[in-house]
Amino acid sequence: MNEPESREVEPDGDLYRTIFDLSPEAIVLIDSRGRFVAANGRLEDWLGYSPGEVIGKSLLSAPFIPRATKATIVRNFLRRMSGKDIPPYEVEFRTKSGDTRYGRIHATIARNADGRAFGDLVMISDVSELRAAEKSLVRRSKELGERVKELTCLHEISKLAIEPSLSLDQFLRRVVELLPPALQHPELAGARIRLGEREFRTERFEDTPWMLSADISSEGKAIGRVDLSYSKDGSDGVFLEEERALIETVAERIGHMVMRKRSERQLERSEAKTRALLNAPPDFMILTDREGRVVAANEGSATLLEVPLEDLVGAVIFDFFPDEMAERRRADAEKVLRTGEPVFSEDEVEGRFYHSRIYPISDERGDVVQMAAFSRDVTEEVRVRRRLAESRRKIEGLHDAARRLGRCDTRDEACRITIEAVRDVLGFPVCVAHMAVGDSLIVRSACSELPPGLELDETTPRDSAAMRAFRENRTVVCGNGPGSACTHCPDVFRSAVCVPVGDTGVFEVLSPEEDAFDEEDVRLLELLLGHTTEAVRGVAMREELEQQVVRDPLTGLFNRRYLKNITGQEVERARRYGHRIGFLMVDVDNFKEINDTLGHQVGDLVLRQVSRYLRAMVRATEFVVRYGGDEFLLVMPESGPDGESVILRLQRAFGPWSEELPTGDIPVRLSMGFDVWEPAEGRSVDEVIASADDLMYEDKKLHNSERSPVSADGEA
Question: How are strands ordered across the β-sheet holding 100-111?
Answer without folding.
Answer: 36-39, 26-31, 117-126, 100-111, 89-94
